[in-house]
Amino acid sequence: MKNVTDSSNKLPDGVLPFPVEWIREHPGKVEEALAKLSVEDQIRYAMQLRGPQMQAFINLSPNAHALIRGLPPEELYQMIKETGLGESLPVLAVMSSNQLQYSFDLEWWQRDRFVPECALEWLELLDKCDDSSILEWLQTEEFEQKVVLFQSLIKVCKDDEMTDSYEGVEGMPHLNLDGVYDIYFKTEEHAALKRLIALLRSEDQGLCESLLEAVIWYPVTQTVEKAYRWRLTRTAERGIPDFEEAIGVYSRLSPEALKTSVPELEDFAYPQEFNIAPTYPLSLVGGVPFFKDVILLLDNPERVNTICWELVYLANKIMVADQIDPSNLEMREESLKKVLGYVNIGLELGASSDLGKGGKLLGRTQIQALFQVGYQQLMSLKWKAENFLKENGSFLQWMFAEFHKDQLAALVDRFPRVAEVDGDKESLNWRHFASVEEVRNAESLLDRWMFYLRFARKGLGLNDELIKQYMERCDVPEKDDEADLIVWTMMAFARFTLFKKISCEPLPELAAKSFLEIIFLPGIFRDEVRQCDDALVESFHQELLKLPLAWVEADRKFLSELLNECVLRLQGQFGRLDPKSEIDWRFTHGLCITKGNI
């Protein structure tokens, strides 16, 4: 998309009126460049950046106050979470009461429970800011919320007949500003709260006394419930629905939903001067290339704006429906990745992976509808995996290695995941599906294992009882979970090579050594990994193809892949061993060796 200063939102491609590294290396030049731009343009450029870099950009603006207050509350809150509360004091100092309220609604509540520790943390930070909007917030926002805040942090008493209740205040820090209200602090850290109460009394004595009276008289439970209802009303206006509405995102997509027109910008809340949609969802589109490429093709700036809003609202729904903490940055990112992945799958399916068709589809289809298409595709994958698990039951434990068990577990999770090795680490990383290709790969994995189990039962003649008998006779492997399909296929290979018979029966040590002597070609160098004799492997391959398994092309492909894995296992485990010398089979993995022969 071109670098223009119209009403469009752009992908976070780093296109600024100056090199981005100038923010750190040449702040003076950045200040000069920003001085020539309108506040609206500065906002749009700022929203191309993330976290600390975005805040540094704002701090260099000669119109920082207007810039911050022109940001959507959603974008501003995301920046604060990415930067860190403690590092965001310059921003907190000038946030509007509306922006503060949005942050408070996400930070101070865990579902229907008010969390005073979180509220106190924000008050302490705002106390460090000069001229923050906290007083404006106290004077304008919903009354019960403020009562809940103070009831959770202070106890108020009066020396008269009706309110003379000083029980339980011994040892609590005390404040009396007017000789009437005795204020006791429930927390050790109370300096910021003390200064806030003093400020409120000096600036608005009537409101201060009303709040202190409410702390005394308002019933706690009913006040919290009423404050929470008001909180739900506010968050609903910002696209954060209650649970009953949010869970509907996982319902089956109706045909009528596809006919619903896309929303207009007026359908979203804009309390700010500038009608600018949050762009932080687009910072993660690199993980969904098809969706990103389609967005780049859209030539309708207003539609790009509404897509950004739809993504924000949809991610909010997911956080509510999945009952996760919206104030947790990792969980926010997880939910957004899930939204983008499901939408990308739905868009790919609907457009048959054609970018041109994708652009037309995205231009006329609501984002939630595309999400639901992707979700239903993944539910079909999950049901297929669950049926596979039910049909094969305990037999799987003899076939699956730990990695394959984790792969299957990921597919039958509440929301199917991709299980993959996390870089160079040994642990697996479970992440949400993000493309049609990944879904097809998972379906292929299930198809492969359906064939493998059919091959194990009907081709190799294995079943639970027979495998148990084999394992009872073995010294190696020592543990049941060390046996898998590759082990049983290698045993069948060994017995076919030695006796021209398809069987997985364990071998005596001498027979196992004979197999190793036969299967490996002579090596030139002493320590090199010897290679398997391809002719023997192919002979075994052709024998397996004679098994009565109603072969189809995919089965033949899966069998070739299985044999390739067996060859690699053989070479990796036994390619450097000398069969004429003593072998400690306990440190190998691949052959079953019978008892009494080691």
Structure description:
With 598 residues, this protein is mainly alpha-helical. The chain folds into four domains: 1-94, no CATH class; 116-216, no CATH class; 243-376, no CATH class; 460-594, no CATH class. Helix content is 57%, strand content 5%. The strands form four sheets. A three-stranded antiparallel beta sheet has the order 3-5-4. A two-stranded antiparallel ribbon has the order 1-2. It has a two-stranded antiparallel ribbon with strand order 6-7. α4 (51-59) crosses α6, α9 packs across α12 and α11 crosses α14 (220-237). The model is unreliable at 1-14 (pLDDT under 50).
Secondary-structure map:
Elements: H1 22-25, H2 27-35, H3 39-46, H4 51-59, H5 64-70, H6 73-83, H7 89-92, H8 97-107, E1 109-110, E2 113-114, H9 116-127, H10 134-140, H11 143-153, E3 154-158, E4 174-175, E5 181-185, H12 191-203, H13 205-217, H14 220-237, H15 243-246, H16 255-259, H17 289-297, H18 301-321, H19 329-351, H20 355-364, H21 367-392, H22 402-411, E6 417-421, E7 428-432, H23 436-459, H24 464-472, E8 474-476, H25 485-499, H26 509-519, H27 534-545, H28 553-574, E9 593-594
Antiparallel strand pairs: 1-2, 3-5, 4-5, 6-7, 8-9
Helix pairs in contact: 3-5, 4-6, 6-8, 8-10, 9-12, 11-13, 11-14, 12-13, 17-20, 18-19, 19-20, 19-21, 21-23, 25-26, 25-28
Would you report the number of β strands?
9
Strand composition percent: 5-15%
- Residue windows where pLDDT falls under 50 for at least 5 positions: 1-14
Summarize the biggest pleated sheet: 3 strands, antiparallel
- How many angstroms does the end-to-end distance come to? 70 Å
Percentage of residues assigned to helices: 55-70%
Count of distinct structural domains? 4
Class inferred from helices and paired strands: mainly alpha
Radius of gyration: 33 Å
The global form is elongated
Average pLDDT figure = 91
Query: Can you count the helices?
Result: 28
In what order do the strands lie side by side in the largest sheet? 3-5-4
